[in-house]
Amino acid sequence: MFTGLLLASRWLPELSAWVSLDSNASIYVATKLSLLTATLGLALNAKFRVIANINRDNLDRLAWHIVLVTMMSIGFLLAGVAIRTGGLFSIGRPCARWLGSKS
Fold first, then answer.
1. Nearest of 38, 37, 40, 13 to residue 25 by alpha carbon
2. pTM here?
3. Long-range contacts formed by 42-51: CB under 8 A, 24+ apart
4. Rg of the chain's alpha carbons, rounded to an integer?
5. Can you give the pLDDT at residue 8?
6. Roughly what angle, to the nearest 10 degrees, separates helices 59-85 and 24-45?
7. Are 57 and 65 in contact (CB under 8 A)?
8. In this structure, are residues 12 and 29 in contact, taking their beta carbons and an 8 Å threshold?
């Protein structure tokens, strides 16, 4: 988590820009931070509510947690690819500019 926040601060030094959604950079940083928060919440829920009381009756709840974490991981992957390749959306300026690319 720390390295993700460090990288976000490198891309957008001002914290208010992380959630302003006025450029591709802020959209992707906000997306990744939202996914990170959701993953952390789901992990805490699984640890304290599902795994702590695991039995045959609530294995389906654990399965849903696994499915949701997998979906969020795919979201992380797509957001990371979008940042590195120039974006999945054409909102605002291209990502290559704020990453310092010369293209």
1. 13
2. 0.74
3. 42/68, 42/69, 42/72, 43/69
4. 17
5. 82
6. 160
7. no
8. yes
* pLDDT confidence of residue 88: 66
Residue whose token pair is 């990371």: 80
End-to-end CA distance of the chain: 31
d(CA 18, CA 33) in angstroms, rounded, equals 9
Residue with tokens 């390295």: 3
Taking the C-alpha atoms of residue 41 and residue 46, their distance in angstroms, rounded to an integer, is: 9
Residue position matching structure tokens 């991981």 = 73
Q: Phi and psi (nearest 5°) for 21?
A: 60, 30
Q: What are the phi and psi torsion angles at 42 (to 5°)? A: -65, -40
- 42-84 tens-digit pLDDT: 999 999 998 888 899 889 999 999 999 999 999 988 888 887 7
> Measured between alpha carbons, how far is 10 from 14 in angstroms, rounded to an integer?
9
Residue 2 CB partners (closer than 8 Å, separation 6+):
none
